[in-house]
Amino acid sequence: MRRLRLYSNCKITSGYVRDVIVDLEREKFFFVPKGLTLMLSKGFDVTEFEAYKEVILNYESFLIENRLAFYPNFLFQGDPFQNCNDSFVKISNCILVVKDENEPNSLMQITNLLDTAGCQALLILLEDASQNVNEILKSFSESKIRSIELVVPYRENYLDTLSDDYELNARISLVTFYNAPSEKYLKLGDYKQIFVQLLPKTLSELLFLKVRPEHFRCNIPFYLESLQGNPYYLKKIIVDMKGNVYEDLVSNRVSGTVATLFPADSEFEFIQPEFTRILKSEIDICKNCEFQNICPDNRIPQRKQDGTWYHTSECRYNPYIGKWEGEEGYQDLKKSGVVSTATEFTIDEEILACAIEAAWSDDQRLS
Ligand code: SF4
Description:
Blueprint: E1 5-6, E2 10-14, E3 19-23, E4 28-32, H1 34-42, H2 53-65, E5 69-70, E6 93-98, H3 106-117, E7 121-126, H4 133-139, E8 147-153, H5 166-169, E9 172-178, E10 184-188, E11 194-198, H6 203-207, H7 220-226, E12 236-240, E13 244-246, E14 254-257, H8 258-261, E15 302-303, E16 309-310, E17 317-318, E18 323-324, E19 338-340, E20 345-347, H9 349-359
Iron/sulfur cluster (SF4) binds next to loops.
């Protein structure tokens, strides 16, 4: 029997009511019914499921037409992703919070650390519009950082924030102005374009955006980090201009300084708080969500008395009915019969069945 097989860059993540196939090469995802996942695990043997032949053939053409699966000429062994879930990169991205003047040497220590750790992505976050971002950019001009994102408070003549120096701006990919009077999107430059967005949001609204579908990341590095822990915080360092290293963006807890935590003359280990190693599959609600390997949610999970994890606030997505807040048929967790607290995680199947029925009218069936 020939077995239909997913391409190795196509990964299935299971949710409560449906699954997704994430295409890490084309950076997109496809919803699939749970029956299709089952068929894939059985090798699409039509003879075994004769009664469902038509459904199986539909599934088969869906997978082949969307270039998600193929019939290999020989049998593959194993999963190429299995042994590549870690990399030599110790710090994959950095948030530099600019709220004070820098201490002498601290910027140099930060750039040295990021280069040693293999970090290529930097987000510079300014709390005051009068701070000079170009001076900071200059200090990274010789570094290995490949992509820089700026987050800057809005001011009149906001574009003056950026200099005309092509060299200085070459690595900037996105500039976000928060506290803007209205929403606006621009592209600057000809050869190398810089995307600029003006958002009428406060800094905390911007940093703690509840996750939406457009935030999902369907790429290989993100997927691999999601197999090791929280892909938003894992291998992310948050530092200020004095070289203080923060545990997360919420608590303002300082775990040390760049100089003390990462001595320049030694091999260092980047020790992060325990929650950064917690997989979404270990957190109530997220564990039943089909987006768990592509979701950059930055809420910090809390440990429950029994050692498992939960979130104190609710996501905009309800994975038990497959609906986003604002979508027709959406109901929150409680109304869907799902309770998630510090002491309890329960699903009332009867209430949930009614919520699913109400959420999906005939023309929107989960199929
Ligand atoms: S339930 Fe969890 S994994 Fe799913 S979208 Fe919300 S935060 Fe992301």
